[in-house]
Design brief:
The protein is an all-alpha fold. Helix content is 71%, strand content 1%. The longest helix has 28 residues.
């Protein structure tokens, strides 16, 4: 009789079926080729994962409308202006993306940018300090201001809205005090200010500059993609097939070379745009490829889950607000380079609203945990295109505000509907 109980054994001739490892759905998508990607695309659309598609579609519509109203809109000179003037506010919006990923807001960035321009002017013009050293000290000042905001928020428990609103008032007052009765300080068109100025272009007087930038971008994408492919293949996890890598590089090459051709017809690629793009690449790497970036998304997704995972939530919060302050200072220097002056008007007006709008319109969620730094570029392309197009049509500033506000509202509505759709489909 066969043995029973816990000492019973399976017959020698009985062969157990091998364990089947679960397949990663991304691997199935890539194995199916174009059909798999199309199926995945439709699944994401139904699930509310829209990504950057709404803003890209919106940008195409905006460019089409303005081009039909004025043939100069897509001219080389106008595209150069758009690319140059979006960089300053784009830098401020980049710092705000980090804060928005936490589900918070920083209302002080505009006044910090104005204060930074005043500090740089005092260092470099009034006291004759080396301009590069003045630039470093100015950005460090912005980082310090942001860290102060973060400390009160993360350690004391004061809401970020209140802390940064107080900072907006306080730092604006300090700027007024520093500029004194004159209300403005001139900045020399030398050193970093010349590089950031309107008359400074990448490889000036060399038509190859734009094409060199496009080539570097394509080569960097190919190199990074193939390195990642090799690493993931060795680890035995899904990786991008070579055909997909080449297709992505081809798309980037088309966009890059067309942009270079258009910009080179007038003067080339503004240095301010080059610095802005390099900054975005670095920040994108930090957010997607580093431990710190993963912690930012974790805190933005769920604070309690982040704490249980051992993440120092307070430190992440302070670091993020410090980053926002640093980018606000950098944006202030970009703005100062447009006029070579630090004035009482710096950081005033609708700068704060435009910076926030750029990040949100570009696709970063106001609710935290979702977005990327490229939102700053896409959002500013939309905003600057609207402003420039309406200027060409001699429209009143009030019309610009109303249209930009409507676009911002549309972006928030899309984000809210997208989140609701993802929750209903179990993907939020």
């Amino acid at each position: 009789m066969p043995k029973s109980g816990r000492h019973a054994q399976a017959p020698a001739d009985e062969v157990l079926p091998p364990a089947v490892a679960p397949l990663d759905p991304r691997l199935l998508v890539r194995e199916e080729g174009l059909k798999g990607y199309w199926t995945e695309f439709k699944r994401k659309m139904r699930g509310g994962e829209l990504g950057s598609i709404p803003v890209i579609v919106g940008l195409i519509i905006i460019w089409t409308v303005f081009q039909t109203r004025d043939s100069l809109f897509l001219s080389s000179a106008n595209m150069v202006n758009i690319c140059y003037f979006l960089s300053a506010t784009g830098m401020i919006a980049t710092g705000l993306v980090f804060v928005l990923l936490l589900g918070e807001i920083d209302l002080s960035v505009a006044s910090v940018s104005g204060l930074s321009a005043a500090i740089f002017a005092i260092f470099s013009t009034t006291h004759g300090m080396n301009e590069w050293l003045a630039l470093v000290l100015t950005i460090l000042t912005g980082i310090g201001i942001g860290a102060i905001h973060g400390f009160f928020f993360a350690k004391i428990g004061v809401p970020a809205f209140v802390v940064t609103l107080a900072g907006n008032l306080g730092w604006n007052g300090l700027m007024l005090w520093l500029l004194g009765s004159t209300g403005s300080l001139s900045i020399q068109d030398t050193g970093p200010m010349h590089i950031l100025g309107q008359r400074s272009f990448f490889m000036d007087q060399d038509i190859a500059g734009g094409y060199i930038l496009a080539t570097v971008g394509v080569v960097a994408l190919l190199a990074g993609s193939f390195i990642e492919q090799t690493r993931r293949r060795k680890a035995g996890v899904p990786f991008r097939p070579t055909s997909e890598i080449i297709l992505r590089a081809a798309v980037l090459a088309i966009v890059g070379y067309v942009a270079a051709y258009v910009l080179n017809k007038t003067s080339g690629v503004p240095n301010a745009l080059v610095i802005f793009l390099v900054t975005l690449v670095i920040c994108d790497f930090v957010l997607r490829r580093t431990t710190f970036g993963r912690k930012v998304f974790a805190v933005g997704g769920s604070i309690e889950a982040a704490r249980r995972a051992g993440i120092n939530v307070a430190l992440v919060r302070i670091a993020v607000f410090a980053i926002s302050g640093g980018f606000a200072a950098a944006g202030g220097l970009f703005l100062a380079a447009q006029t070579y002056t630090a004035t009482l008007a710096a950081g005033s007006g609708n700068l704060l609203m435009l910076a926030i709008a750029a990040a949100v319109i570009g696709g970063t969620s106001l609710f935290g945990g979702r977005g990327n730094v490229w939102s700053a570029l896409l959002g500013m392309l939309v905003i600057q295109s609207i402003q420039t197009g309406l200027d060409l049509l001699n429209m009143n500033t009030s019309i610009q505000y109303m249209i930009t506000g409507a676009v911002l509202l549309a972006a928030v509505v899309i984000d809210s509907v997208s989140r609701r759709t993802q929750k209903s489909s179990g993907r939020a």
